[in-house]
Design brief:
Layout: E1 8-9, E2 15-21, H1 29-46, H2 54-70, E3 74-78, E4 81-84, E5 87-90, E6 94-100, H3 105-109, E7 118-120, E8 128-133, E9 142-146, H4 150-161
Parallel strand pairs: 7-9
Antiparallel strand pairs: 1-2, 2-3, 3-4, 4-5, 6-8, 8-9
Length: 162
């Protein structure tokens, strides 16, 4: 069963028809902290005294910050635009949209991929969406991006384009 979320207010503009963060699973923080401890232990073994703790103080926050940085990536439909990470596409330039299943990702991102396509892939997210760009002035033929709830995105796109 899919979670249906009501439209959410945006911090910079009106109401968002679709808003999803492409963050990593919560359990990834456990091995990340463990890796930080392991790297900190390597430094700890080489230095006596207070300097032995520098590795822990540096590596653990640095690695956790890298995971937190992934939370910044969002897929949004708001104000007549589709925003995927840093890219923005007016909805009037959205053509055919299709969902690429997890089992078809390798082909979509490999032999079928046009080098001039916009790609925002997150390996831990199963499905992809492939979206045709109809703007003749745009050199990007289509976008391929990860999204956890592609059906909800397609519904939001259809509703927002009406």
């Amino acid at each position: 069963m899919q979670d249906h979320h009501p439209p959410t207010p945006s911090a910079t503009s009106g109401v968002s028809a679709f808003d999803e963060r492409l963050s990593v699973p919560w359990w990834w923080y456990v091995p990340t902290v463990a890796l930080g401890v392991l790297l900190g232990a390597e430094v700890h073994m080489g230095y006596p005294g207070i300097r032995s703790w520098i590795g822990y103080v540096v590596f653990i926050p640095l690695l956790v910050a890298a995971l937190v940085a992934f939370r910044r990536t969002r897929v949004r439909v708001v104000d007549g635009e589709l925003r995927v990470g840093p890219a923005v596409l007016p909805l009037r330039n959205v053509g055919r949209v299709e969902i690429v299943d997890r089992r078809d990702k390798q082909a979509a991102l490999g032999p079928e991929l046009d080098p001039s396509a916009f790609v925002l892939h997150r390996g831990w997210i199963g499905p992809l969406v492939r979206l045709e760009v109809t703007d003749p002035a745009d050199p990007t033929p289509y976008w391929v991006f990860s999204v956890r709830e592609p059906d909800r995105l397609l519904t939001a796109l259809a509703t927002a384009r009406r």
